[in-house]
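cron nightly-structures :: item 1 of 1
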Amino acid sequence: MIYSSKSNKLFVIPKPRPYPKMRLFCFPFAGGGVSTYISWADSFPDDIELVIIQPPGRGSRLAEDPHDNMTSLIDELMRHADFITQQPYLLFGHSLGSRVAYELCYRLKQNEMPLPQYFIASGSRAPHVSKDKEMIHNLPKNEFIQALEKLNGTPKELLENRELMDLFMSLLRADFKIAETYLAQKCKMPFSILVLHGQDDIDIEEHQLSAWGELSDLGHHLVQLPGDHFFINQSRNEVIHQVSQRVGTALAASYSTL
């Protein structure tokens, strides 16, 4: 189901809840879409509503031009800030999605709007720490595809299909441009941060992970899970378990304030 109206495709809600006590917003990785999170809806109580962020250039928004900078992406999200902050909520993002979620928090804080109960950063360096790897978003087509192959995150079927790659090339380049050029303002947030990391993910260094702690007044907790950068798929059940624990804690705290 699409939030609000048929013309609004930014929010995908697999199982709408009439009166959700809390919402969990999930942000996709570079080149990713809603498919990563669709099945998660079955893993949470009936008073938790899962909302998947669907930026343009993918899924039902395939015909729309993708955002190629963080500012325009956050501008779109902020147009729906009232919905995002309507109920107590948590944010989860994987890779680029973690940094998009942080920048949303930064903008919400600037506007003195409610912030999430909990923040879960998965497979990502802290957003204010610079990337120390070579940029790939502006490489020639064949070199760009080869670089994607090395990252092991783009399906082989897509990489080997020239027509599909032509279809998704602008999206992939735009997402990777944001991922490689955006650098956040360092700002302490009033919520705890859970950092999930793949044990075999060699592209993120320890100092880039620990730097998430610089963004929280309440500290951060690092959990290592089996898998490489895309452990979110390889260790799906473990990821959902970690998220469920934080959702449960936040929900219990919410009920205790009634």
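cron nightly-structures :: done
Residues 1-6 have pLDDT under 50 and may be disordered.
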